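If your schedule permits, I should be very grateful for your opinion on a structural question. I have a record of one protein: its chain in single-letter code and its fold written as discrete structure tokens. Kindly check, if you would, that the fold set down in the tokens agrees with what the sequence suggests. I remain grateful for any guidance, and I place the record below:

***
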Amino acid sequence: MRTTTMGLVLRATKTGEADRALLLLTPDGLVSAMAKGALRLKSRLFSGTGLFCYSEFTLFEGKTMFVVDEAEVRQVFWGIHESVEHMALAMYFAELASTLSPTGQEAEAQLRLLLNSLYLLSEGRRAPRLVKAVYELRAMTLAGFMPDLVACADCVKYEGGAFCFDARKGSLYCGECAAKRELECNLDPAALAAMRHIVFSGDDKLFSFSLAEHSTQLLGAVTGRWALYCVDRPLRSLDFLNTVLD
């Protein structure tokens, strides 16, 4: 049985002399596939099966996994491969996406989010730390881990001064209520506004905001902690990312 699908290569591992074992994120979910002979320069599968290539794949079912029959490139994010920082961040995104293992409509939304994030990284249109924070929070929200950011969970205060986001509960507390709970504030007004924007905005507006460096650092610390709490497992790519991210 043959099938055709768009897919982003999340992982491409050499196997045998010239084969690639692929993990693809498609609009329907994750797909494991073997691209036989793809590492040979003259192979018609060479270009379309590279890491972070977005391609149209023609697959047929093998005994244990899908086999790639054709791979036609639609988008190559060249800028990612030119920077260690960008590549490390892309690998982190890929590990998060594979860990979440989305299906159905969620898979389509996660794929769109990842493609947009990789494009902005590749073109240098947003600071890497900001792209990381947006991706983490939006990916968790799409996966069903939407934090409660409407107002303080205790007194319903909406804004004014610093707030605390408690990743253990996924809840927000104003400065006074955080102090009563012996929690430290970790969001300034700009970082909190950014979190609400990331969670509630449409796809076309997701990255349409700017943030000062200090607020970006606060935002990134919170979204990173939230992502790790949600996936509930260590991410190998994150250790390397933390050594290269400026």
Notes: The mean pLDDT is 96. The radius of gyration is 20 Å. Residues 104-123 form the longest helix (20 residues).
